[in-house]
């Protein structure tokens, strides 16, 4: 969800990728339902393993955002380029034990929380984002998380 929203909200200003430790076989239908009204290209979305972003040919990232604390360090792999980590913790709309109507509400709530968080991120001065990323890189040896698929 965050990948599609960042592409839509920021245009070509950022490259966005989404992955997680246990990718689904397809994008969840409730994710598609939330994105369809405002996202122009849903065809590029597909669940991916975060291991796809660890190899020699993986894209170099400046920032990796975890949307769920359960995928944070020490479970995440090391990503090339030693990107900065940001943790934006949202409720898991796929959690066990919630009704289908509650699941729909959680998807809607998380969608708007991600929109707000990404909007603030996009509006931040790029120089400030890069300087934070550069200073954080010097203090760490690896990136501890990635974007989970919703």
UniProtKB/TrEMBL annotation:
Annotated TM spans: none
Keyword annotations: Arsenical resistance
GO BP, sorted A to Z: response to arsenic-containing substance
Tree of life domain: Bacteria
Domain Phosphotyrosine protein phosphatase I: start-end pairs: 1-124
Protein name: Protein-tyrosine-phosphatase
Organism of provenance: Paraburkholderia caledonica
Phylogenetic classification of the source organism: Bacteria, Pseudomonadati, Pseudomonadota, Betaproteobacteria, Burkholderiales
